[in-house]
Each structure stands twice: as structure tokens, then as C-alpha cells.
Design a protein that fits this description.
The structure holds two protein chains of two kinds. Chain A is 38% helix and 21% strand. Chain A is of the alpha+beta class. In chain B, strands 1-2-3-4-5-6 form a six-stranded antiparallel barrel. In chain B, strand 4 and strand 5 form a beta hairpin. Classes of the chains: A alpha+beta, B mainly beta. At the A-B interface, helix 1 and helix 4 of A face strand 1 of B.
Chain lengths: 413, 87
């Protein structure tokens, strides 16, 4: 068997490109990609961050993740469009469908990134990549970067080299020339903190990191250090998982349109989030052992707290009970703008050990299931708890439901 | 032809082929009156999938206010909506 050839296909400014293509299709005269523009949340509801930016907007120094307010200060004539996840999923699906003509082994790494295993194919990989990229541009109206390498890591690094609409290769013999001169924070899995640590010891390039002694990095940064050392040397051998990544936790959060100041109100928000998490966990047929709560106050200071349960759960009321408990231990009374809960250490809910310390409520389980089926049939707000009446808080809170099947970001290749 | 992208009311024929066949449509003229345009001939039709959204584009010929004109219609498969795309 010959060597592996892995493609990493990354949509150039994904949300913005998709939005632009959709608008052109609907008769818009301007292409959002050619003017300073962003896709961003609703500032009224304080969800105001830049999700994607056009290349002209980038020239004004606008970065993804900054607030709309500061983006507008940098570029007064900035065009802003609200996101529409349904459209983006449609665009992403269309791209994956098109790519299925080239290989059966496709891993959707996120909504706008795909790994494709192109080992042992007839058409030479450069020709295939060129054809893919042209076909996506002509048929679907947006451009992609394609990175080609012997494994997922190098393919991903390659697709990031220069944008947009480019094809890059990065094989082991090209490491020195193409990757080792890059700053160390450009390496996958090296975040700002790790970069600071490395810089502190005089390590500024990926090449320098790669040349360090394996034992030295292990004794200094432990297992994660070993991982980035291997990455710096181009060592990575995970499969292209066409089944998708296994789900490790279920979490939801909300940024509130107003600051929460009372315990009662905060508990209601937690209950609303618990409803969503419970529903999702039951839908996945999973239950979790660990519940964690995190909060962010009006000064953007955030903290979290977690607890391991005596028995795994998928019940809305149990999730809420512990979330409220954790919250009470955590909260110091400051106004809050953001609350989140996550349920992790998941396992199948088909069989599980019940606890002597925790009552097992069979009736509650069937109540949860009945509510779920009512909601799936008649809509999320067809049935809800009376405490939410006139409370100004949505009875079920939790992000964008459809977006959930595509992880937005993951540290697992 | 100018891009209009006006939503229109359409009578179409679903004949079991891949795409429906537009027959006649109604749109509001600038003075508020209704204008009915019959499609005399479909010059060509093609499917586009921009941003993954499937639409059928028809280039047609018909008589508009006593003038023989060429125009483009669009049918959005997801929403079953018709538009006068260009005229």
C-alpha cells in the first residue's frame, strides 16, 4: 500500500462566503466578499461578535471574535449581516455531497472544514484537488483552500498557509521549508498560553520546538507537550473518521439580553438550559456523570464549578437540581450576563448503574420522554413549566439546535 | 436585462419531468396594476446550487405590454417560490 494522501478542505471566510453566494443568487447587486463586511450576532441582544469577515474588512484590522462595536469603530461603513445557520448547513451539506464523488472517506471536522482520505486513487491528487476546488467555485459559488499532506495534521496546516482559493501541499520532506519557519503559535493545538510558555524559554518557531529533545519537552510540559512536539515534527496518524467524532459532552449556554441579579431569576435560566441539555442527552440516548456550571459576570469575569454525581443522569430535574446547587456555591451576588451548564462523562443510557444514595424515579423518566415527544411534534414551546409564564425568560434555552450536529471547534483531529 | 428578483404568482405545470414548467405569472406593475404574462417559449433551463440552495433558472420569451421580451425566472425548490429574476 502506498502512502496516505489526506486532503483538508477549508471554506474561505465560510459564513460570509455562503451569505454572499446566497445573496447573489437572490438578486443582490453587491458581493459581500468585495466590500468591508461581516457576519455577526445581534447587538441588541448583546450577542454582538464578529463571526466572519470579508478580506476587505480584514484590511481594517477586524478580527473574528471581536465585538461588533469595536469592529464598527475600526471601519465606519462596515456592512453587517445577521447569521443564518440553516443556510450555512445547507451550503456545508452541498459541499460534502460534491466531495463524495472523490472519496467515500470524508470526515466533517466542523461546519466549514472537511478531511478527505485520497489515498490510492487513480487521478493524481493535484489534479483532483484542482478539479474539486473549481467545481465548488462554479457550482456552489464559494472558494475553498485545500491542504494536502500525508496525515490530517499536515493537511490542516497546509490549508492555512495562504488564502483564499489556494491549494497547498505539506509533506514530510517539505516541513523544513514550509512549516518550521512559522511562529510556534501557528501550530495546531498551541494556544496563546502555551505559546507564551514556549516563548518564555526562547522557542519562537515550530522548527525550534521540533528540534527540542523529546524527553525534555515531556518533563517540562508533560503529555500535551509531547503532543505538540510530535505535531511540530509532522507526526500524527489518526484515521479520517467518516462516522463523525464521538460526542464527549452536552452543553448549552446563554448570553442574556439583561443582567441577572436575583438568585431566583438565575435559577430559572438554569432550569431553561437544563431543559435543553436533558432533551439533547435523551435524544442521543446518553446520560452523564459530571455536571458543570459556569457563569460570567457583567465585568466579563468568568468562573466554573463542577460535580460528579453518584449515578449518571439524563433527567431535566436532576440536571437542574445539581446545576442550581453548584450555582449557589459559586455565585457571589454579582450581576450575571452569561450562564452555561454542561453534562459530561457520557455513557449510553440503555443500561446504567443506579445509586443507593439517589432515588430512581421511573415516573419522572417517562414524564421527560413524554414532554420530549410533545415538543418534537408540536414545537419547543408547546409545553413548558408554569414558572416561566410572564418571566421574560425563554422556557427552553440553548444555542442553535441545528448547529449542534457539527462541532464548531474541536481539539481532536 | 436588469436584475429584479421580484416574487411572483405563478401557474406552472408539473408534468413528471425533473422540473416544473412555468406557464403564466402575475406581478404588480409600478402603478399598482396587475400584469399577467404568458410564457410563450422556454429558451433554456438549468439548475443552480449556489451556497447549496437549489434553484431552477428559466430563460423565457413572452409578450409584456405588447412587446416581445426575454426574461429570466427562478424557482426555489426549498421554498416552492417563484421569482422574476431578470427582465
Amino acid at each position: 500500500m502506498s502512502d496516505r494522501i489526506i486532503f483538508h478542505i477549508d471554506v474561505n471566510s465560510a459564513y460570509l462566503s455562503w451569505e454572499a453566494a446566497y445573496r447573489l443568487q437572490h438578486g443582490s447587486q453587491t458581493d459581500l466578499r468585495n466590500i468591508p463586511s461581516i457576519v455577526g450576532g445581534d447587538q441588541e441582544k448583546r450577542h454582538g461578535i464578529v463571526l466572519a469577515k470579508s478580506i476587505p474588512a480584514k484590511k481594517f484590522g477586524i478580527i473574528t471574535g471581536e465585538t461588533i462595536h469595536s469592529a464598527r469603530e475600526k471601519c465606519p461603513g462596515l456592512v453587517m449581516v445577521p447569521p443564518n445557520y440553516y443556510r450555512y448547513i445547507m451550503a456545508s451539506d452541498a459541499m460534502v455531497n460534491l466531495l463524495k464523488d472523490y472519496s467515500p472517506l470524508i470526515q466533517r471536522y466542523s461546519i466549514d472544514e472537511v478531511f478527505l482520505d485520497y489515498s490510492n486513487m487513480d487521478i493524481p491528487f493535484m489534479d483532483a484537488a484542482g478539479e474539486m476546488s473549481k467545481k465548488i467555485e462554479n457550482e456552489l459559488g464559494f472558494t475553498v483552500n485545500i491542504g494536502i499532506g500525508p496525515n490530517k495534521l499536515l493537511a490542516k496546516m497546509a490549508s492555512d498557509f495562504s488564502k483564499p482559493n489556494k491549494i497547498h501541499t505539506l509533506f514530510n520532506h517539505q516541513l523544513e521549508e514550509k512549516m518550521w519557519n512559522l511562529p510556534v503559535q501557528d501550530l495546531f493545538m498551541v494556544g496563546s498560553r502555551t505559546a507564551r510558555k514556549l516563548n518564555g524559554r526562547g522557542i519562537f518557531t515550530i522548527g525550534h520546538l521540533a528540534s527540542l529533545d523529546r524527553e525534555y519537552i515531556h518533563s517540562w510540559l508533560k503529555k500535551p507537550g509531547l503532543l505538540i512536539w510530535e505535531y511540530a515534527n509532522g507526526i500524527e496518524n489518526s484515521e479520517v473518521r467518516s462516522g463523525g467524532t464521538p460526542i464527549k459532552s452536552v452543553g448549552n449556554s446563554t448570553t442574556l439580553p439583561f443582567d441577572v441579579e436575583t438568585r431566583e431569576e438565575a435559577h430559572k435560566v438554569l432550569l431553561a438550559i437544563s431543559e435543553m441539555i436533558g432533551m439533547r442527552a435523551r435524544d442521543l440516548e446518553m446520560c452523564g456523570w459530571v455536571i458543570s456550571v459556569s457563569i460570567k459576570n457583567h465585568l466579563f469575569y468568568s468562573c466554573s464549578h463542577q460535580k460528579k454525581l453518584t449515578a449518571p443522569t439524563d433527567a431535566t430535574s436532576t440536571i437542574y437540581k445539581y446545576a442550581a446547587l453548584l450555582f449557589d456555591e459559586l455565585w457571589d451576588g454579582e450581576p450575571l450576563r452569561h450562564l452555561s451548564i454542561s453534562l459530561s462523562q457520557l455513557q449510553s443510557s440503555e443500561f446504567f448503574q443506579i445509586s443507593m444514595l439517589e432515588p430512581f424515579d421511573k415516573k419522572n423518566r417517562s414524564l421527560d420522554r413524554t414532554i420530549d415527544s410533545l415538543r418534537s411534534k408540536f414545537g419547543q414551546n408547546s409545553i413548558y413549566r408554569s414558572c416561566f409564564l410572564h418571566s421574560g425568560i425563554d422556557p427552553v434555552i440553548g444555542g442553535v439546535v441545528m448547529e449542534e450536529s457539527y462541532p464548531m471547534m474541536s481539539s481532536y483531529l | 436585462m436588469k436584475v429584479l428578483m421580484k416574487p411572483i404568482e405563478m401557474i406552472a405545470w408539473f408534468n413528471g419531468e425533473k422540473f416544473p414548467v412555468p406557464l403564466r405569472f402575475r406581478l404588480q406593475a409600478e402603478d399598482g396594476s396587475n400584469l399577467v404574462i404568458k410564457i410563450d417559449r422556454i429558451l433554456f433551463q438549468e439548475e443552480e446550487k449556489l451556497a447549496g440552495n437549489r434553484m431552477v433558472v428559466y430563460r423565457c420569451e413572452g409578450v409584456v405590454q405588447e412587446l416581445n421580451k426575454v426574461f429570466e425566472l427562478k424557482y426555489e425548490i426549498l421554498t416552492c417560490k417563484w421569482f422574476l429574476f431578470k427582465m
